[in-house]
Specification:
mainly beta, Porin, 3-stranded antiparallel sheet, 16 strands, 14% helix, globular
């Protein structure tokens, strides 16, 4: 059972990493949308109902900027470790959308990620991974005339086209979200978003085959609940529910150059399947596992050549508290060890037509 709990933590952190990737994509879209607010208000009434956008981004992990000193004891035995924590990734997303009667927008997103260095990847170096296909249905919102406030809402669905979600036996991921924006001094845009998520899985745990589990089979309890039919083993516990609160601010700083900052705090709950038994340690508790994470961004964006927007951002995805659980992490840059690569410098170009 101790091993199950460790796998639970690992599973939650993988889920958090994937959710952080999605959150970064959403943050970037929000930044760009904010910078285009004024232009949208002046758009022609006969503007087309459909749109297509593509976004290419590259991120450099903070561990790339530090070097590990070699241990003299192993000089000549092991390779130079100075680049052990180098991380560099690329991502590409394509999003077609269609607006119905200026009321509801429907969009779909397909995305790929590519690890550019040998140190990246979950199972192997330089992994190229197809992400889950997303479907979003959004109410375009309402702007109040008497006060500079607007509200909007939507629903999102994630379909298990990625290896991670297929291993987790995801059937579909769902979420409901709502947001409110307030424009201050006709310049500064403040926004709050609330998101509620519910995932549906075939099993409450990720599932791997016996050949993938390999020697680990030997330490599973004979006849234990981890074993399912068909030569499959359960690994950890899937997350079922999620709650996120995010805050953002955006304002123009020069010409069309816009500065944006965002902060999101998320909590995840696993399925209620953790059971304490005679092999559990004293701190094991029955019920749901819980994990929390924060993601943030500080960015500059600038539109050019009618259809393009370029941006540069510092993005961080980490836990609320430090490793020793004694204090809180600084949310906008990881200062609790660069080796974790929790922060990255990101450059992106988005084209929309």
């Amino acid at each position: 059972m101790n091993r199950v709990l460790r796998l639970l933590v690992v599973g939650l952190m993988v889920t958090w990493s994937l959710s952080a990737f999605a959150q970064e994509e959403a943050d970037e879209e929000a930044d760009i949308s904010a910078s285009a607010d004024d232009e949208t208000e002046e758009a022609e009434e006969d503007s087309k109902d459909w749109a297509v956008s593509a976004r290419l981004a590259t991120g450099i992990g903070q561990g790339t900027f530090v070097n590990v000193a070699p241990d003299p004891e192993y000089d000549g035995i092991v390779e130079d470790p100075s680049n052990a924590y180098d991380r560099w990734n690329m991502s590409l997303s394509l999003t077609p959308s269609y607006t119905v009667m200026d009321l509801v927008s429907v969009s779909a997103t397909v995305a790929w990620t590519q690890q550019m260095l040998a140190g990246g990847g979950i199972n192997e170096p330089n992994e190229l991974r197809f992400q889950d296909v997303g479907l979003d249905i959004s109410w375009v919102g309402h702007k109040f005339e008497s006060i500079p406030i607007s509200v909007d809402a939507g629903a999102s669905f994630a379909f298990p086209t990625s290896d991670q979600s297929q291993t987790a036996t995801l059937i579909v991921g769902t979420s409901l979200n709502g947001g409110v924006s307030y424009k201050l001094f006709d310049k500064l845009t403040l926004r709050y978003d609330l998101g509620l998520g519910k995932d549906f899985h075939e099993y409450t745990s990720p599932v791997v085959t016996d050949d993938v589990a390999g020697i680990d089979n030997l330490i599973w309890r004979a006849g234990g609940s981890e074993r399912v039919s068909g030569g499959l083993l359960l690994e950890g516990v899937n997350s079922e529910y999620a709650l996120s609160n995010s805050f953002s601010a955006s304002l123009p700083v020069w010409d069309k150059l816009r500065f944006s900052v965002s902060y999101a705090f998320s909590t995840y709950w696993t399925y209620d399947v953790v059971k304490k038994d005679e092999l559990s340690n004293e701190i094991t508790q029955d019920g749901r596992g819980v994990a929390q994470g924060v993601s943030s961004s500080v960015s500059l964006s600038y539109p050019f050549l009618d259809y393009f927007t370029g941006s540069v951002a510092l993005r961080t995805s980490t836990q609320p508290k430090t490793s020793d659980n004694r204090s809180f992490n600084f949310p906008f840059w990881n200062v609790d060890g660069a080796a974790s690569n929790s922060s990255q410098l990101q450059f992106a170009v988005r084209a929309a037509y």
